[in-house]
């Protein structure tokens, strides 16, 4: 999926100046494929699919010396089986990471290509398309995300969660996460919501509901092992729509069924 097709949870992004991207390209000599387009589309603060962080130019330039010292001191070159040479590591650039500890590296000797050092620090994978196919970067590249989206960060964002628990704990709901998400989608139907079932590997039975007008991302999950019958709804949204989200929560709970 091209960068331009990434769904923006909220259109209020942190813009990155073109001159900053130009400055980074001049310092490195080239950029990962799709990096410039990613900055233009998604900005410099937030996460791709709640997992991937693509560092903005100023952060990459400010941390390059420290990143190189850390990466080379951890004996990565000796532990990793890859096409990389010692000379490559002396010119490495840390350009992103994942919430699970993966590190995305760029080597000018391999123009455009992105390398992912896994969180276990014993494996490295190559991504020739880099950010041109960002969905391939999630879950260590093992699971392709069905709906690449970007959730911007900033003071304009808010969030909270609540349980879908009708009557009392003694009467848990039998509704699946998909059924609950469909009920929520019906509430927001005027806003053309998007309902997405996530891959079972890595996400369990989670279903996501996107409502772009309010910057809304609602996640529906269950933990049958620890809380049988209870469903949890986590909501993220732009602060200006807090009253609307609260109104949804009240009505959604009022209509709770077993």
Polypeptide structure, described:
This protein has 258 residues and is α+β, with helices and mostly antiparallel strands. The chain has 2 domains: 149 residues, SMI1/KNR4-like (3-Layer(aba) Sandwich), CATH 3.40.1580; 100 residues, Double Stranded RNA Binding Domain, CATH 3.30.160. It has 8 helices and 13 strands. The protein has a 5-stranded antiparallel sheet. A 5-stranded antiparallel sheet has the order 9-13-12-11-10, with helices on one face. Strands 1-8-2 form a 3-stranded mixed sheet, with no helix packed on it. Helix 1 packs parallel to helix 3. The longest helix has 17 residues. The protein is elongated. The model has no long low-confidence stretch (mean pLDDT 86).
Strand and helix layout:
Blueprint: E1 7-8, H1 18-28, H2 35-42, E2 46-48, E3 52-54, H3 57-73, H4 76-79, H5 86-89, E4 93-98, E5 103-106, E6 114-117, E7 124-127, E8 149-152, E9 157-164, H6 177-187, E10 194-197, H7 200-203, E11 207-211, E12 216-222, E13 231-238, H8 242-254
Parallel strand pairs: 1-8
Antiparallel strand pairs: 2-8, 3-4, 4-5, 5-6, 6-7, 9-13, 10-11, 11-12, 12-13
Helix pairs in contact: 1-3
**Number of H/I helices:** 8
Give the oligomer, counting copies of the same chain as homo and different chains as hetero: single chain
Which ranges are low-confidence, i.e. pLDDT below 50, for 5 or more consecutive residues? none
Average predicted confidence as pLDDT: 86
- CATH class (first level) name of the largest domain: Alpha Beta
Name the helix and strand elements from N-terminus to C-terminus, one letter apiece: EHHEEHHHEEEEEEHEHEEEH
Order the strands across the largest sheet as they lie in space: 3-4-5-6-7
Q: Which topology of the largest domain does CATH recognise? A: SMI1/KNR4-like
How many beta strands in the DSSP annotation? 13
Quickly give the structural class. Answer: alpha+beta
Largest sheet: 5 strands, antiparallel
Tell me the count of domains. Answer: 2
Helix share bin: 25-40%
Please give the radius of gyration in angstroms.
Answer: 21 Å
């Amino acid at each position: 999926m091209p960068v331009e097709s990434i769904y923006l949870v909220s259109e209020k992004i942190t813009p990155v100046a073109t001159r900053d991207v130009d400055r980074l390209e001049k310092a490195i000599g080239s950029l990962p494929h799709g990096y410039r387009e990613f900055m233009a589309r998604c900005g410099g603060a937030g996460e791709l699919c709640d997992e991937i962080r693509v560092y903005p130019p100023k952060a990459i330039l400010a941390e390059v010396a420290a990143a190189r010292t850390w990466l080379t001191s951890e004996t990565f070159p000796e532990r990793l089986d890859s096409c990389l040479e010692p000379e490559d590591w002396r010119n490495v650039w840390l350009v992103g990471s994942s919430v699970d500890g993966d590190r995305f590296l760029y080597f000018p000797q391999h123009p455009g290509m992105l390398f992912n050092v896994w969180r276990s620090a014993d494996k490295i994978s190559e991504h020739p398309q880099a950010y041109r196919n960002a969905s391939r970067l999630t879950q260590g590249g093992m699971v392709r995300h069905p709906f690449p989206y970007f959730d911007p960060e900033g003071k304009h964002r808010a969030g909270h969660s609540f349980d879908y628990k009708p009557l009392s704990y003694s009467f848990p709901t039998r509704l699946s996460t998909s059924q609950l998400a469909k009920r929520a989608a019906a509430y927001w139907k005027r806003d053309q919501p998007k309902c997405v079932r996530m891959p079972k590997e890595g996400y369990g039975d989670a279903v996501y509901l996107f409502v772009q007008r309010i910057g809304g991302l609602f996640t529906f999950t269950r933990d049958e092992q620890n809380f049988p019958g209870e469903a949890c709804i986590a909501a993220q949204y732009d602060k200006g729509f807090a009253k609307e989200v609260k109104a949804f929560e009240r009505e959604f709970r009022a209509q709770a069924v077993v």
